[in-house]
Amino acid sequence: MRYIFCLIQDPSRFEAMTPDQQAAGYESYMAYTRALQDAGVYVGADRLRPAAESTQVRVDANGKTTVLDGPYVESKEQLGGYFMVDVDNLDEAIKWAARCPGASHGTVEVRPIWESPVRA
Length: 120
Hints:
Blueprint: E1 2-9, H1 11-15, H2 19-39, E2 42-47, E3 55-59, E4 65-69, E5 78-86, H3 90-99, E6 107-112
Antiparallel strand pairs: 1-5, 1-6, 2-5, 3-4
């Protein structure tokens, strides 16, 4: 079963780190990625650009499209990236999520993915 780990973090914490601390943090994520790959459960992962670079698209009931730039969530914590894994069950997903570096300085939300009968 596939799960996505949503990494919820306060980006100001990363910005406050020294370059050496940032490099060490980056390496911890790379080591985690290698562990997922070595275990054969890695499907994909990406870091997201800052919320300030986001664009929101909404279509109302009349079909009118509205496009808004920038973040509109009033929260210090933001979705900063994700990992997707394919594991046997939720317990295994939780064990991997607990090993994610993001769990020690933010929140890792574990979400099962709806399995589609048609996969590209």
